[in-house]
Amino acid sequence: MLRQDINRIDPKRRNVVDYRKKQFAEPTYKETEYPHRLNFYETPPTADITLEQFEQWAIDRLRVLAELEACSFRNYSPAETAAHMKPLLEKYLPLDSNSSSSTKLSAERQKDHYSHFILRLAFASTEDLRRRFSRVETTLFRLRLAEDTARERNAFIQSLNLDWEPVAEDERNKYFAELSATSGSRKGEEETAWYKVDWERVPDLVEARRVFLRAGKAYVPSKELPSMVTAEFTKRLDRALELTARALPRLDEDDRLTPILDHLSKNFVTPDAGYFSSAVAGAEITARNIDNLSSHFPLCMQHLHRSLRRDAHLKHYGRLQYSLFLKGIGLNLEESLIFWRTSFHKITDDTFNKEYRYQVRYAYGDVGGDSNRRGGGSSPFSCQKILMEHPPGPGEAHGCPYRHFNLENLTSLLQQVGVSDRSVLQGVKEDKENQKFHMACNRVFEYVHKNELKKAKDEGIMTAAELETIVHPNKYFERSYLLKNLGKSNNGDDVKMEGF
Amino acid sequence: MPHSISPETDNQNMDTVEETMADAPAKNDESQEGDNDITMEETNTLPGVVKEEEKMDVKLEEILAAADSDDEFPSSAPEPVRMNAADPEVMRTFYQRFFPWRYLFQWLNHSPTPTNDFGHREFAFTLQGDIYSRYNSFPSADLLRKDVLRLLPSRFEIGPVYTTNPRDRKTLRNSSAFKPLSKELCFDIDLTDYDDIRTCCDKANICNRCWQFITMAIKVVDVALREDFGFKHIMWVYSGRRGAHAWVCDKKARTMDDQKRRSIAGYLEVIRGGAQSGKKVNVWRPLHPHLSRSLNILAPHFQEDVLEAQDPWASSERAEHLLSLLPDKALNESLRKKWDSSPGRASTSKWADIDSLARSGGGSKNLDTKALLDAKQDIVLEYTYPRLDIEVSKKLNHLLKSPFVVHPGTGRVCVPIDTRKLEDFDPLGVPTVQGLLEEIDSWKGDDEDGSEDKAKNLQDWEKTSLRPYVEYFRSFVLALMKDERDPKIKREREEGQAMEF
Ligand SMILES: [Zn+2]
Questions:
Q1: Interface with chain B: mutation pick from A207, A227, A235, A390, highest number of B CBs within 10 Å
Q2: Does B328 map to a domain?
Q3: Catalytic annotation, pick one of B122, B305, B311, B439
Q4: Quick one: three-class SS letters along B306-362?
Q5: Are residues B95 and B17 in the same domain?
Q6: Mean pLDDT in order along chain B per 10 residues (501 residues)
Q7: Domain housing A207
Q8: Which of these is catalytic: B35, B37, B157, B188?
Q9: Burial of B255 (0-12, 13-18, 19+ CB in 10 A)
Q10: In angstroms, rounded to a whole number, what is the distance separating the alpha carbons of residues B307 and B326?
Q11: Parallel, antiparallel or unpaired: strands B180-182 and B155-162
């Protein structure tokens, strides 16, 4: 049964992608072989797997992707990312080389292959998800390509049959000076192999003047091959995601898979910052309790809350940022409608229903198109989104105070919420000047929770991983709430990935 | 920016007619050297003053002729006020009699019969009262001409070809279906970006000395586009006052997305940073082949057109800037001493001093000659390498002023520049709309064989100094159309063969 479920992707993809070959293709479901460690994911899987495997593999890959995305947000260098990801990859998505003595090569590669396709299906629905999925999958591919041995990497690249023309010797001699000027190699290591491709295939190398150009062809030194292969990987994945997205509405609803896929995509929306869990155990998340809870909110949300209380109103992006955050901490739709209705106390029911009700319902996926409902509405904004998109204009209260306030107003807001320690304010000032806004936010968090953090560390309640830099407002709330209730709740285990 | 309009991405609130700030024509376009650059206001209102001040001016005769010939105008001719290039009646005559509509159409249409390449192309008009009207489109050259004659825009711009007719963009149910599809790859070089290195003029003013910056810029960019990227159909157009535009018309260039445009722009961009940024050239060694080729092209210009013509380091303040770009402190000290002791030392000598003092031990003991050479190369680049207004090049949906429109401030026609005779191009000598009106009025048809029949068949532009420019444009367009047509013919032939079987 399940085999057919997965094959739902398969015939359709073949329809679109390989229509020319269709008549020759044999519909066999033989075991896929994996001669190489790396995979361009051109062929959808065909073998049977269990429902359990289906879910578990997808979740494991999702953990890896979420963490990769967090690395990119923390601005980790490729080396830092690789070091950070190593234990996670070994645990959740190991992929050994041919030269290793591992006996599980085939199983590892199958899991990698299947989990990629399951997530592709789960994340094809919206442009935003597709873009992010493509970006982290590319990062993962690049990381793996870099750690391949030269020999296996070359064998893999050869197997791709990319139409890159090796530069013949006479041409290499003719352009000797030009080629050596663009090889970028240090003295001693002579670049020997070059490939000729249309310059449009390597726009980044062209833009950075890292290739020699002649008559529209770029002469790419072989050491740039990984970046070309990676660019090709992204290009093909993007195209495949588009095709999957178009095929999605035609996929039959499957009672067992749909909830899993929905759940996966919902959880990819937030893991931006490694943020998975929504509800916090033991917290009473109701409309009337928001005032109490707001002391656990990060500064951006506290500011929105205070503005809402002061004006009995928030403008569009403020409502969006705040209502999604509240949804993220576990405020359900019903309570959310109550919260917004009572908060906007200067307007009539009629106005509220006409102008605001829809947006709240939309945020929860209660209305809107198929893809909005499928995705459970919009997802809470990550710090990255708040920092980068829609900077607040006059009269707007959304955004990140550490970024969008001037220093004077930021300091005054911090003092209003009880942060007046001079060294903390000085640190925030420096963070702001260095544009390390999340550092400022974490600095304030550490100050506000310094006693609880010490206790948590001393008693080993929270692991180092659980105390990493916060890069999501909901994570801020979650950690704050848990720390402040250390004695009341049993321990930190409740926080872990309960979503699954 | 006078001839680049930021792309309008949000078309929800766009009305057909929108007001924007049109650039005010600069009031004083007169250069300091008396190099025959006279504004039209002056020819109209102050001919006497001009006559006295512009001694030996080649334009003097024209001014006198213009004044004298007023009486000879046929009675149907407009009043002398028409001499103002911003006058709608002047523009009417220009669009009616001189503008090469047919070739403009073929240029944008890529075929003699109307296609969507022309029909879905956006035209933006600058109308009287600084009204800016976007998203106009026309099925044919004739309808474009008619509308231009009705509205008499002071100038118009050309935007991209869209997926659908730009006029219908609001009636589309799905607004995302309205997208720009293709547009020529464009470049914009403007002398105002050279104000920190040109000493002869500033702001809107130009002369033939500083025009050399444009000449060298065209050489460097043109050769890169041809040799490196393989483009063939590149047209350079005088912007009417102080710069030039490039239109790269190859099909491959027209269909590039923004990412590709950005990478070409980045490939060509070398001078980065504004007035306060210090060192503007930061390039890797060994130099990329594009940069070593550019240096070879630019080195003679640096000597003649910069060091000799501009004398850029005459003042000690400017000489300090030169020193700030050199790496060896001890050498700088020796240079400073030498230059302080001989005020007014020419830039050419100062440039030569660097090497001679370095050779005679004026630098530190272990003077890094490689670093000094690199720094000198960087300086040559800073003072000669094209300064591109890169935003124009990066976006598919950027608008750019059409060739052959009239610059409202100078009255000059934005004519194409024949790169085979690039050095001969004189921006101050290009036809002006006022000049053209005089030429056509005084045309007797007797210049060649004097045959009446032939004269009757001549277009008005053929009777004027606009002729070589239109002819250049025509041959450019024909070559472009030929390349667009050929693949089609080939395909049809193949299909025809298949039919026979
Ligand atoms: Zn000048």
A1: A207
A2: yes
A3: B122
A4: HHHHHCCCCCHHHHHHHHHCCCCHHHHHHHHHHHHHCCCCCHHHHHHHHHHHHHCCC
A5: yes
A6: 42 37 35 33 32 33 32 34 68 95 97 95 90 94 96 95 90 76 96 91 91 98 98 97 97 94 95 69 93 98 97 93 94 96 94 96 92 96 94 91 94 97 96 94 68 71 95 97 75 44 35
A7: 161-227
A8: B188
A9: middle
A10: 17
A11: antiparallel
Dihedral pair phi/psi, residue B452, rounded to 5°: -60, -45
Decide if B122 is catalytic: yes
Claim to verify: residue B422 and residue B361 sit in the same structural domain: no
DSSP result, B197-244: T--S--TT---HHHHHHHHHHHHHHHHIIIIIT----EEEEE-SSSEE
Does residue A28 belong to any structural domain of this protein? no
Contacts of residue B305, Cβ cutoff 8 Å, sequence gap at least 6? B209, B212, B213, B215, B216, B384
| Residue B18 covered by a domain | yes
What DSSP character marks residue A200?
Answer: G
Which of B378, B347, B388, B144 is CA-nearest to residue B243?
Answer: B388
Which two tokens mark A412? Answer: 């005054």
Q: Which residue has the tokens 């490196």?
A: B228
A409 falls within a domain = yes
Contact between residue A357 and residue A385 where contact means Cβ atoms under 8 Å apart: no
Six token digits for residue A118: 């399951």
DSSP state of B303: I
Q: What is the DSSP secondary-structure string of A22-44?
A: TTT-----PPPP--SS-----S-
Interface A-B: count of C-beta contacts within 8 A: 53
What b-and-e string marks burial along A308-337, b requiring 16 or more CB atoms within 10 Å of the CB? Answer: beeeebbbebbbbbbbbbbbbbbbeeebbb
Phi, psi of A7 (to 5 degrees): -70, -10
Q: What is the pLDDT of residues B435-468, one digit of tens each?
A: 999 999 888 765 555 555 566 688 899 999 999 9
Considering the entire predicted model, what is its pTM? 0.62
- Assess if residue B272 is contained within a domain: no
Q: Looking at the partner chain, which of B252, B265, B286 has a beta carbon nearest the beta carbon of A181? A: B286
Distance (Å) of CA A239 to CA A120, B1, B310:
12, 38, 54
